[in-house]
Amino acid sequence: MSGNPLDKRYAVLGAMLIAPTVLVFCAVIVYPLVSALYLSLFTIFTPTLRGSFVGLGNYAYLVNSPEFWRSLWNTLLWTICTLALQIVFGVAAALMLHQNIVFRSLARSLILFPYFVSTVVAVLVWRWLFNDLYGVMNHLMLMAGLIKMPLDWLGSMPNAMISIILVGAWKYFPFVVIAVLARLQTIPDALYEAAKIDGAGAWSRFVDITLPQLRDVLVVVVLLRAIWDFKEFDLIYLLTGGGPIIATQTLPLMVYKDAFGLNDMGRASAVAVSMMLVMLSFMVLYLKLAGRDERESQR
Amino acid sequence: MSKTISQPGHGVSRRAVLAGMGAAGSMAAAGTMPTPAEAQTVTLRWWSPQTAPAQREAYNFQIQTFEAANPGVKVNFEATSDEGYPAQMAAAFASGQVPNVVTHLPSFAVSSYWQNGLLEPFNDVINMIGPQNFFEGANRIYEVAPGQYAGTGIGGSAANMMWLRTDLMREAGLTTPRTWDQLRAACQRLQRAPVFGAPLPYARNSMTSLIFISFVHGAGGSIFTPDLQVNVDNDAFRNALEFYKSMREFCPPGATNYSWGDSLTAFVSGATATGIYTGRVLANVTQQNPRIADFVTCQPYPTISTSVPHWTFNDFPSVMIPKGAPNLDITKRFAAHLFRADGYIRQLHAAPGHVLPVLKTVYESAAYQENALIKKYAADVQIMSQQASAGHNLGWETVRHKPNTKAGQIIASHVFAEAVQRYVGANEPMAQVVSGVARRLDELMRA
Q1: Is 0.95 exceeded by the ipTM?
Q2: How many domains is chain B built from?
Q3: I want to staple A268 with a disulfide (CB 3.0 to 4.6 A). Which of A91, A195, A258, B292 is the partner?
Q4: A–B: how many Cβ contacts below 8 A?
Q5: pLDDT of A50-66, one tens digit each?
Q6: Does A261 contact chain B (CB < 8 Å)?
Q7: What CATH number did the domain enclosing B352 receive?
């Protein structure tokens, strides 16, 4: 078997054909990952990249660091809340845009606007809207008599966390719209017609037909958006900078502060590796649960 | 058998063509295939966080005159920011892709980078500019060893000047406050909807940290002892926190998120009766709110009592050359060119009073003094110049202090801004806040 020259040539050819993929994978996945793990074992002054080996010292520091645990909590809170709103708004908007409404094409285009606009521009607009002296939000609420003094949207808690969650939901819900709308268009009308004949109301049709049909796409959307939201940096950094104190500081902001503010690349790498492990744990758990649900629904 | 691409008179194999294309591509990618333009052009990169449109125009003039005098040299300006420069500089040093010249970063950044071997010596540039042209002692903060300079100042700044509205003061029958009590009383009288008393920042950023440091000095204290031991567990530090807290009721609700731009805009727009900023107020008021332009003036920020002298925060905007910057000779010439009178004066006039000259020859020149704003606000500019020349920052708290090369990291850690937020916003006990600051400062100094 091993002596067959044709098999050998095929084996070599196979290795050669797969080699580019393996090389690219190593360059863009394995190397950065191993680098991050390696760096996290050192204390490193960022500008010079010189440092000394500390073993698991950085991880021990993080375990005992209230800042790390608070940042992790903030990251989870932000991810879960903004993701939940994205899904709710995204599915609702997709259902609306799936109906025969006037200017449907225009509405479908416009609803994507927040997703396409640059984060910096979006944040500038929102900071302007939230401004205590000239912001539209405070102005309208003052005019309506809802408040007597302008609200501090970004500088006090819980307002700051609520604000970033809302802006995050606004910015990224169009991604859900795109995915869900595409799936909605492939659900056979016959299912709805049959349900109507059986006397199902609108809510029943949504719960018993639409949602199960959307299940697969929502699993993927939730997975992707959870990953992206978990490592969101620019939107939060530009809106609150992690403040007040560290009330909205998420792990990516902590990585940035450690790496470039405090010039400690080793500790920043340890935070980044911890972040990856947390994310990985949640993803494995999520996929297991999603897989179990699917198996149960198929029984 | 290889096919050939037929051309009149030539027969070239496809393999040869592909090989040639591959080789050409490789050479181009490796940068070994010079084009006529590249062969002659030297490109310099200039970084600065001072990027207001008028300043950019002045920079463009300086770049054009340098390029005209040095054919084949091209200068690219790249913006950084007061909050973002540590990250950008760290990334540049780590990657080896450093800019040629960096301007307007605070002096303590120069000390820190020099200490870590990240800067080129700057003596040659100072000699090109002419050491005798500088104000006495202007380069002292950059003298890292006797006779050895790590950079130089491109200007001075008086960052915590108190700005006042004379019209509102007159209406309220107030005189210029000298002490914190008087300032509080004035703010109380001046605060009438929709005008707030002051635009102090309470955010988690460098401005809050820098303003708080100035309050500690305004209370007669310092963050470190002259030999750089942590010195925050004392009355001066506590009084500074108390004062900061007591001013909260006179500041807009959104001050918890204010940075330099927000604070400036609050005063310039007329939303607050007092301000705290550099001389940039003059240009902004004139351009953006001329209605109040005749009614603004500045004074050094009050202190806890008349016996405590004013302490002005001067970040000593610097010029430095990162280690490893390519084309060092031309880079040094460009750094010196930034001080050539015609361009330097344009740069200073771009924001009169904001960046103050370090060259006495320029300050005394008619060309500098001929600016409409400098003439109109001559008394204010003079006060700011005096304050800036006697100014200090966390990297050099007083003349008795050793240079603190950890100042940049301390500011970036937000330890002071967080202390303000903990005490003012979160109402944490004073003792807890002070001990927390002491512990973190100690960690940062030992790191």
Answers
A1: no
A2: 2
A3: A258
A4: 108
A5: 889 999 999 999 999 99
A6: yes
A7: 3.40.190.10
